[in-house]
Structure formats: structure tokens, C-alpha cells
Give the backbone structure.
Amino acid sequence: MPAGVQGESVARNYAEALLTLARTAEDPAGWGIMLRQVATAMTTDITLSRFLESPRIAADAKSALLSKALGDRVPRHFLRFLQQLVRNRRQMLVPVIADEYDTLLDASQGIVHARVTLARPAGDDETAMIGQRLSKVVGRTVVPHVTVDTTILGGVVVRMGDTVMDGSVSRRLATLRARMGTGRR
């Protein structure tokens, strides 16, 4: 589900709150797994997704369904967190909250996720090499998530949080064009 910048910011706030609860329960990894399972169910089960998304169904009915489905399977505070999302009409952000939660949990363990854009597909060996090189640069374990965008022509664009490293051929050409246009050599 695309969330946009505002949705990601809200999702990060919820993820931080859930991580605090999970740490209090001394099971942040387990809570992350439960959250991911709920997110997966929402994205794969169209009936569940439509039920939770429908404005015609009262929040109480949605909370009751969550309680019935999860009440004896998840910690009480985890269930209350999901029910609060429903009351706040933020239940459709669960998949984005799960992503943010995973990112926060990994960051607390020294793991950084990087969005790596290449002009062509990368094999497993190349992806591993990119991860190793980025890990050396930032001094933490970097997990690269590679996407392909042929418009960059070549090179690589790396995004880690708010940091962007643009070594693409298209950026280099744009810089060269700008220099040539201003008469600088």
C-alpha cells in the first residue's frame, strides 16, 4: 500500500510506540513477527482488507473481529495496539507500520536498509558485494534492496534513510550540462 510521506511519518510514530511496548514485554523480535503476519494477512486476504477498510463497518465491529481472531494468540497489549489503530482509522497503515517497525528494530541492532537503484538487474553476488561495500562505508551492516531504473543510464543511486548518494550516469550528465551551460570548465 503506498503511504506517501505523511503516511510513512505516522506509521513510524506507531512503529516506535509498538517497539516500546514490545521492549517492555521483552520480545521485540516476536512482536515484529506478529505484526508482519497481520500485515501479510491484510495484503493477501482481499476479504479481510475490504472489511477493515470499509467505512460502513463500525470500529467496534472491526475491534471485535480482531479480538475474536487474535485474542488468545497475541499479547493483550499487541491486540490493544491493533484496536487503537482501528479506533484512529489507521488500520490500513499496518503494512507500512510493519515496514517501519522492521527498520527500527534492525537499526537498534546495527542493521541499515538501503534502497539501491541500478540501471540493470543485479545478481546475488553483485547485490552481496554492494552490501559489503556499503557496510564498510557506513560502519554498520547494510542490507541492500535493489531496484532497476533504466533512466539512470548507469552507476548507482543509494538511499539510506534521509541520505542519498547519487552516482548515476544521468546525474553526472546533468552536472556536465549545467557546467557547459554556465561556461565553466
